[in-house]
Prior knowledge:
The protein is 55% helix and 6% strand. By secondary structure, the chain is mostly helical. Strands 1-2 form a two-stranded antiparallel sheet. The chain is elongated and about 115 Å long. The relative contact order is 0.03.
Amino acid sequence: MRTALRRLFQGLIVVAVLGLLVFAVFPTRTYLAQQDATSQAGERLKVLEEETAQLQARAVALDSDDEIERLAREDHGLVRPGEEAYVVLRPPLPPVDLPEMWLVGDPDGDPEVTPPVEVEAAPPEEPTSG
């Protein structure tokens, strides 16, 4: 009788612990996940609010004639009548030094030498005046 009562008591303890897990631990996990999602959404909202403030300040700046003129000059090279525009070009890239011969390997690992390929460049076309 005592052993049956002891087993019943142990069973009740196991059921109570499982009930505690179901009603306390699992909702706590969900709560923590929701708190994490809320904090991430709050950070994203903060970033979006900062971007919105920057864009609004930019929109206000673009409302002035001075800013429009500055952008037209910088981005599009526009000038007022009577002004001259100059463009500074970058220097050309240095020529590429290629070897006179290329080594081409075959699958067996024996390199075979190939002669250089002669390439003729087409002469530049002269602009036609008309």
